[in-house]
Specification:
It is found in: Cytoplasm. Its EC number is 2.3.1.286. Belongs to the sirtuin family. Class III subfamily. With about 240 residues, the chain is an alpha/beta fold. The protein is about 35% helix and about 20% strand. The protein has two domains: about 150 residues, Rossmann fold (3-Layer(aba) Sandwich), CATH 3.40.50.1220; about 90 residues, SIR2/SIRT2 'Small Domain', CATH 3.30.1600.10. The strands form two sheets. It has a six-stranded parallel beta sheet with strand order 3-2-1-7-8-9, sandwiched between helices. A three-stranded antiparallel beta sheet has the order 5-4-6, with helices on one face. Strand 4 and strand 5 form a beta hairpin. The structure holds ligand BJW and zinc ion (ZN). Zinc ion binds next to loops.
């Protein structure tokens, strides 16, 4: 199966990857829906929404500070590096990720489409203020602060620059991802439950346009029914073998 997947990739014309929280699990970043994916027993739908932020911004910020701390302590794993290497070899044309952890870029992937934003950026809940905390060297300050962060322009609350349930994905980003999927003849789907839309349309678009779907996951997902090749296992281990 792994050999078949490697062959498909090697012969592809425009391969892309579509990744989710499972690709970062071996880096120590908790997933959303796994058995240890939940934070203090809250479901993602109870934390990653506008309503939750309006009702209890302190709870939502606690959650994001906890996640940022985990992500800060994380390094890319062999799966992230394998995708960067496949791009370097000219095989992989883009990584479309639902993750907000920056690990694909850290591993050296150049063409990364972040569908759900980035945890190292914040924006104002009311005005157009945005800030990249990583570039400004302010990540630790944010993570360690006990106060709710406020906008320097208008005084409203700042929020993580990520996409919550019920919010539209950035239009240009989604269009870019869908265009890549339409062009693609092989999509490597790694570590996603494939339950969250519109992101989960990506492999379906590839399939509809005649492309092949290779899935890597420790269990089955919403994408498994359309997978041409299903590789059961940990992303880091399977991807290291594919590259061999
Ligand atoms: C391993 C592994 C290892 C573990 N190796 N594998 C159509 C149909 C139905 C519903 C909808 C629809 N369209 C919209 C909706 C509503 C909603 C939705 O999809 N709901 C479903 C849950 C039913 N979607 C939305 O609300 C989206 N917005 C939208 O549609 O807006 C419409 C609109 C238009 C115009 C104006 C206004 C509105 C937005 C969705 C945003 C999702 N946001 C989050 C949080 C992001 C910020 C953050 O990170 O904090 O995104 S929620 C969370 O889920 C996060 C993830 O990116 C996303 C997906 O999760 P993922 O990555 O799949 O993780 P898990 O944990 O679910 O799965 C891990 C997988 O890895 C598992 O399969 C494991 O087996 C596997 N695994 N270890 C390999 N070592
Ligand atoms: Zn503001």
């Amino acid at each position: 199966m792994i050999e078949e997947a490697a062959k498909l990739l090697a012969r592809s014309r425009f391969a892309i990857a579509f990744t989710g929280a499972g690709i970062s699990a071996e880096s120590g970043v908790p997933t959303f829906r796994g058995k240890d994916g939940l934070w203090r027993h809250y479901k993602p739908e109870e934390l990653a929404t506008q309503e939750a932020f309006e009702r209890n911004p302190a709870l939502v910020w606690d959650f994001y500070r906890w996640r940022t701390r985990k992500i800060l302590g994380a390094k890319p794993n062999p799966a992230h590096y394998a995708l960067a290497e496949l791009e370097r070899l000219g095989i992989l044309k883009a990584v479309i990720t639902q993750n907000v952890d920056d690990l694909h870029r850290e591993a050296g992937s150049g063409n990364v489409v972040e569908l759900h934003g980035n945890i190292f950026r914040v924006r104002c809940a009311s005005c157009s203020y945005r800030e990249n905390l990583k570039e400004n060297g302010r990540v630790r300050e944010f993570v360690n602060s006990k106060d709710l962060p406020r906008c320097p322009q208008c005084g409203s609350l700042l929020r993580p620059d990520v996409v919550w349930f019920g919010e539209a994905l950035p239009r240009a980003t989604l269009e870019r991802a869908f265009k890549l999927a339409e062009k693609s003849d092989v999509v490597l789907v790694i570590g996603t439950s494939g339950l969250v839309y519109p992101a989960a349309y990506i492999p379906y678009i590839v399939k509809e346009h005649g492309g092949k779907v290779i899935e890597v996951n420790v269990g089955s997902s919403g994408i498994t029914p359309i997978a041409d090749i299903f590789l059961r296992g940990k992303a880091g281990e399977v991807m290291a073998k594919i590259l061999d």
